[in-house]
Design a protein that fits this description.
This protein has 289 residues and is mainly α. Helix content is 72%, strand content 3%. The chain is built from eleven helices and two strands; from the N terminus they run H-H-H-H-E-E-H-H-H-H-H-H-H. A two-stranded antiparallel ribbon has the order 1-2. Helix 9 packs across helix 10.
Length: 289
């Protein structure tokens, strides 16, 4: 029974890592930028939800959708104002910019919401489901179900909508997409919007199981490891990498000596990079620009 509970908790934690890792991969596939502020976008999304649900008293689901929408707008503007002007500069400069953005977002969050951890009530808070002697927290099940729903929505968006297909085309061949009349710059900004919205969803799903504070954005480091493990150009790989880390952490915390839980993600990443540098699920592709 303990194994099942650890497995469910690990899958729930891995879903959060996977959603953040999805944001890494979406932006990288389109622009070849590694956004090290991705975890901090998740943190901002959680704080926005605290304001909408806990501060303004909006119903949970309305606040959930509102926080995602606001963070999507923020992601779009972030690309237009901060990232687009530095396109074409050395990669090192862009990486430093995204790291700096993370510091700025944490400072802004601390100034607006304070240093004390916050939380908000959800329809799942404090509730459990008992099945066959196994007690499962509804918060964890909500994370898993929410991740599945979000992945299905993203799949149909990218496969069956004109905008989704245009985004895929722009990420594969920018010049050809431009000649086909696709507004590449706008598409890239929309990808940043989607990435920020997905990060906000991760923060909203995580918030009931973890207090909302300015340090929760550091989960982005483990999410980066998940993206590397899965293969940095693979969307399914990002999710699977997150699940591998989440499950491994839960079992390491119980069956391995103290300290391994916090380092197991990086040990797995080092092992994968040694054996299969492109990641477990990546397909080697040549990208035309």
């Amino acid at each position: 029974m303990e194994i099942i509970q650890l497995l469910v908790s690990g899958i729930a934690q891995g879903c959060v890592y996977g959603l953040i890792a999805l944001g890494f991969v979406l932006i990288y596939k389109a622009t070849e930028i590694v956004n090290f502020a991705q975890g901090d976008l998740m943190m901002m999304g959680a704080f926005v939800a605290v304001t909408l649900i806990g501060g303004f008293g909006l119903p949970y689901w309305l606040g959930f959708l509102g926080a995602i929408a606001l963070m999507a707008v923020f992601g779009y503007l972030l690309d237009v104002i901060a990232l687009r002007p530095v396109i074409g500069q050395p990669q090192f400069a862009i990486i430093i910019l995204t790291i700096s953005l993370g510091f700025v977002l944490r400072s802004v969050a601390g100034g607006v919401w304070g240093a004390e951890p916050l939380t908000f009530q959800t329809p799942f808070s404090g509730k459990v489901i008992e099945a066959g002697g196994v007690i499962l927290a509804q918060d964890n099940l909500a994370i898993i179900v929410g991740t599945l729903v979000l992945c299905v929505v993203l799949f149909f968006f990218f496969k069956h909508t004109r905008l989704g297909v245009a985004m895929q085309a722009a990420s594969q061949n920018q010049l050809a997409a431009y000649y086909m009349g696709i507004p590449v710059k706008v598409v890239f900004s929309l990808i940043w919007a989607i990435s920020a919205g997905v990060a906000a969803a991760a923060g909203l799903l995580l918030a009931p199981t973890s207090m909302v504070d300015t340090m929760m954005g550091f989960m982005g480091i483990k999410a980066f490891a998940a993206a590397v493990i899965g293969g940095f150009g693979s969307l399914p790989g990002a999710l699977l990498g997150g699940l591998i880390i989440g499950i491994s952490e839960q079992f390491a915390g119980v069956y391995l000596p103290a300290g391994f839980k916090e380092t197991v993600a990086y040990l797995i990443m080092l092992g994968v990079l040694t054996i299969r540098p492109q990641g477990l699920f990546a397909q080697i592709q040549r990208k035309k620009v």
